[in-house]
Specification:
The chain is of the alpha+beta class and 191 residues long. Helices cover 35% and strands 29% of the residues.
């Protein structure tokens, strides 16, 4: 009788061990999606349009006249952000997503060369640009994971003109006046 009781206990321990082993193995082979991975609920591909981008030529003329040069002009990596109000991610990519970095030829305070970037998001319509402009105000900009989302820490301003959204940012508070000045220039361009 005692031997039979021990056999049952040993049998149940083995079954329990096998169940636990299966759970552990299934965890390593069938892992659920990492909840920290950034999955965009709203992904937009922005297209490059030569005619529309030509409307930005006066900006480059003014920048040159003001002593700034184009330090780099890049297709920007996809940009993502998280809207805390709607609890949704938004991601922009495509050939229309552009970034221009300008740097002054003239230092201020003897050593500091003002510089700033202009990120350009061209949308299909003015209404769409205004919609996303409102969503982008003080949102968390993200890289690839939720852990990499953060508020823009550098001085920046965001404006809309026509079907474009422009994000101007600089590395230092002392250069904020430049992004505000050129945001006004972009705001006044006929689009």
């Amino acid at each position: 009788m005692i031997g039979m009781k021990r056999s049952k206990i040993l049998f149940f321990q083995c079954v329990l061990f096998l169940i636990l082993l299966l759970i552990i193995i299934s965890y390593y082979f069938v892992q659920p999606n990492d909840t920290k991975t950034l999955l965009s609920n709203n992904e937009l591909t922005l297209e490059f349009d030569h005619v529309e981008f030509a409307k930005l030529n006066p900006l480059f003329t003014i920048m040159d006249k003001d002593g700034f040069y184009l330090q780099s002009d890049d297709e920007f990596d996809p940009i993502s952000f998280y809207n805390e109000n709607s609890k949704q991610y938004y991601s922009f990519n495509g050939s229309g997503l552009k970034s221009f970095k300008f740097k002054s030829k003239t230092p201020i305070n003897g050593h500091y060369y003002p510089d700033f970037s202009v990120i350009i998001l061209p949308f299909d319509s003015k209404n769409e640009a205004e919609k996303y402009s409102k969503l982008l105000q003080k949102q968390l900009f993200c890289n690839r994971t939720i852990d990499e989302c953060e508020l823009m820490k550098t001085p920046y301003t965001l404006i809309t003109n026509g079907h474009f959204v422009f994000i101007l940012n600089t590395r230092a508070e002392m250069f904020r006046g430049y992004i505000e000045k050129y945001a006004k220039v972009l705001q006044d361009l006929p689009m």
